[in-house]
Amino acid sequence: MTKHPITNNRKIYAKFNELYIQTRKKYLVQFPDPVKYVTLEKDRTNRFIVLNDSMLKTHLDGSLTYGIFNGGYFNKFITFDVDYQSRPAARWATLKLINTLVESFSIPRKDIHVSASGNKGYHVDLFFGKPIAVNEIRSFYDLVIAEVGSIPNGQIEFRPSWTQGVKLPLGVHQKTGNRCWFCDNQTLEPIETFDYILDIKPMDSGVITDNDFDLTDKQAEEFEIIARETNINVNVIDQSAALQKARRIIEAGRLTESNTRHNTTFTLACFYNSQGFERDEAVDAIMEILHATPLEYFSKGSTPEHWLKETNRLVDYVIANDFTVGNAEKTVTIYKSEILAVLQCGTFKQKQMLYAMLVTSKRYGPTFYLTGSTAMKMIGTNSRDTVNNAIKTLVKKGYVEYRRKGELDKARSLETGQVRHKPNKYRLLLDEIQDGEPSVEATNEQSIIDVARELCEVKEIKRYVKRREYDNRWAN
Questions:
Q1: In this structure, are residues 127 and 19 in contact, taking their beta carbons and an 8 Å threshold?
Q2: Fewest CB atoms within 10 Å of the CB: 22, 267, 442, 457?
Q3: What are the structural domains, with CATH classification, of the chain?
């Protein structure tokens, strides 16, 4: 192994701390004899030394190799871990990934930093000026991988997470003896100097996420401690943000920011998957929004044909991986006046329909989509006529109003050569909730019957439910 002098030790240690290290209480060590990885974590051993600059010195010396994890809730960088058995395949996949980041996501090439893994693969790193919630970065990763497309006989993995660490660069792979140099991001030729890391500058986190948590490294570390002690689920933060973004776009009926087509398409695909849209329904709804967006919001040369191709690909990817924005399993608060309105609205199927719309409005906003196929699943019928008739009756009786109905989607109709209509939008017209009303937290597992029984006495249910329906549906 060739010796290379390290002339800026303290500056290099400081740069590692700035760019990579978020938690010192958990890290990886690769030992040389025998070659093996060991994960050290403070909460699991009494004899523990926190990750420190002396370890970084050992790492750069090549005696041991260290790796790091994220804090569990925030990342200040992302590594695309290109892992292939063949070096030529790894080179090809890495260059394709870099090209995708530059061409499709407008990541400046100067902000893309590549290092050799020490075996046959590469690590592609992006560093952020502020910590970003893990699921925001994970969503960006999913979007990039979908854009890269299928690459056979290998994989590009997400790093770091709390459970999967990543080796720090500039160390030595203890099995191969290879130094993990940074590389030129156009040729992948190694840059054999430790000083490369000193010139790395974190990029604007707004390129990855619309959410600015405005956290310093110290604040992020404090959040990690509080979150771990109280067992907070960070997904609620991230998925709520994604849901709000989807709502804003749907209400506007078009993109609300320029050069956000990829991210928006992915977010909406997750949103529609959460609502139970069929594949083609999701594609149609997304394309409607894209067609309604002024052309200046798209990058130069972007065409509807390309939008459709990418929308199909992203929707398929989301469905295959069952990505959602998280609200599908969320409990909702149902009030007694609401359930009484449901009980008196009509037949049992009409009750089911109104209850399904009530839950949907609480999860996804007061103005909401509800496709025929989704509604059929929600009320347990294979008949689209049953759904349509139930909704028509609810509208006629004043429980629901159409915010959009039967509107022809001219752009999609021309594009597909078939008559396409925009999904209907609805809004409930129930009375306002009064202070102090009884309520329950309802889950997906609870039916209208379960919720009604929690909120109402039997005599109240019987007041609004016909005897035959009560005996057949409610008595057991």
A1: yes
A2: 457
A3: 9-207 (3.90.920.10), 235-327 (no CATH), 331-474 (1.10.10)
